[in-house]
Amino acid sequence: MLYNYINMMNHGTLAELLFPTRCAACGLYAGRLLCPSCTARLPYIRGPVCRRCGKPALYEVEECEQCRGRVRRLDFCRALALYDDPMRSVIHRMKYGGAWRLARPLGYMAATTLAPCLEGSTPCVTHVPMHPRRKRSRGYDQAELLARAVAEALGLPHRVLLVRTRHSPAQASSDLSRRRENVRGAFRALAGGGLPPEVILVDDVMTTGYTLSECAWVLKKAGVGKVLACVVARDLADGGLPGR
Ligand SMILES: [Zn+2]
Ligand SMILES: [Zn+2]
Predict the structure, then answer these.
(1) Per-residue model confidence as pLDDT tens digits over 56-113
(2) DSSP β-ladder status, 198-206 and 124-127
(3) What separation, in Å, do the N-terminal and C-terminal C-alpha atoms of the chain show?
(4) Alpha-carbon distance 203 to 211, whole Å?
(5) By CB count within 10 A, which of 5, 58, 103, 163 is most buried?
(6) What is the distance in A from the centroid of ligand 2 to the CA of 49?
(7) Closest ligand to 234 CA?
(8) Ligand nearest to the CA of 89
(9) Which ligand is in closest contact with the Cα of 90?
(10) How far is the CA of 205 from the centre of ligand 1 (A)?
(11) 161 C-alpha vs ligand 2 centroid, how far in Å?
(12) Is residue 190 pLDDT above 90, yes or no?
């Protein structure tokens, strides 16, 4: 707790002297959030992807076998990296280890994947919110911090457009239908002030895409025309393969 408190109070030298920053991925004292070796090993997604779910593909496709039908509310998705180490450890530290400071550089990096795809449009940036109770216990919502960084990096406005109304359990279940049920009806759009025609929806990890798709559906029902997703990591562990 004290470590977190000092991190929040002071980004500078005093905290660094008292509690030198460990690399979020390998844990070595690096004096920075990520050591050069782990930075070089981040599993960036480069090359062609499925436009709808951001999954690497042999050539660019509009949708792939894995996302057909399950993320149909998303118009587009870009992911910075695969959810493999060292990115997995970094995200774990950001979500569960109090390392909220990681959100800003990760958001900036994720924004670079989206910038070439905006084609002159100026969407509003928002995030997949956690339930207020969970945010209170964690002290922050990492997706919100990521979204603010994405907005800042792209020079776009950030608005909170969604609220999570149901405290659903963490998406640990490997049962796909249960995962879908967990997020169905769990969000509500905050339409005060009118909703923008185009939205960038930010989250940390995309696995099945059910959560992002549900949020996109809620936004579209409330009047948003187009939803582009931007995530830090794409988890292919599930892959959506039949029988898994
Ligand atoms: Zn490292
Ligand atoms: Zn796909």
Answers:
(1) 999 999 999 888 878 889 999 999 999 999 999 999 999 998 889 899 999 999 999 9
(2) parallel
(3) 39
(4) 9
(5) 103
(6) 8
(7) 2
(8) 1
(9) 1
(10) 20
(11) 25
(12) yes
